[in-house]
Structures are given as C-alpha cells and as structure tokens.
Amino acid sequence: MFNLSAIKLLIIIFVVVIFLGPDKLPEAAQKVGQFWSLFRSWQRRLESEVREVIPNLPSSDSLGKYVRKPSSILDQLADKSNATTEKGPEFAERPKPPASSRPATDSPSDPGLN
After folding, report:
1. Residue range 51-60: mean pLDDT, rounded
2. Alpha-carbon torsion, ordered 17, 22, 27, 30, to 10 deg
C-alpha cells in the first residue's frame, strides 16, 4: 500500500521509539490502532452509502487501479463494447441508407458544390 522497504520501516520505528520512549510506545500504538479502526469503519460506511446510490460502481481496489492507470478503464470499456456487438444483430450498428436513395444534385447553382 505505502510501498516502504524494510530499511525505511526500521528507520521510522527507530525514530518513533526515540521520540516516544519505550514507556509511551504501547499507549501511542493503541491510539494509532483506535484511529485506524475508526477510519476503516468510516470508509466502509461511506462506501456502502455510495453503493446504495450507484450500485454498479467498481470496487475500491479497482478504482485505485483506475486512478493509477486511467487507460485501464478505457480498455475495460472497449472490451465490454466489443462483447456486446459480438452478441447479436440487435446490438449492432444500424445500417445507413443506400446512396442511391439520395437525390443527385449536379447543378452548378447548388451551394454545396461551390
């Protein structure tokens, strides 16, 4: 999620232990855990409310992937479009009228030819 290496994590832990000290570290860890739990419950509640309004919304993981690589959602939509056009003629594009049914205008007074 945060893409931190082991060395970076050890440095962060070392700095936290120096600033807080070993006697305050358990209390700080408990507060961080409570905050994280509160944040996750708020996130789940917000997501459920949004899904009630927009039921076809992709999952949060998919949305994160789309934010990191926006072309992936366009690829997915193109794949869905291709799948629906291959299903049958009712999804196919409507045929255009034949060219012979249009009136021919070869006169020089036609504003489209000037």
Report:
1. 82
2. 60
Q: Which two tokens stand for residue 20?
A: 């807080």
Q: Are residues 22 and 12 in the same domain?
A: yes
Query: What Rg value do the Cα atoms of the chain yield, rounded?
Result: 30
The 8-class DSSP code of residue 99 comes to G
CA distance 84 to 67: 26
pTM: 0.44
Is the pLDDT reported for residue 20 higher than 80?
A: yes
- How many structural domains compose the chain? 2
In terms of residue numbers, what domain contains 61?
Answer: 57-86
> Are 25 and 42 within one domain?
yes
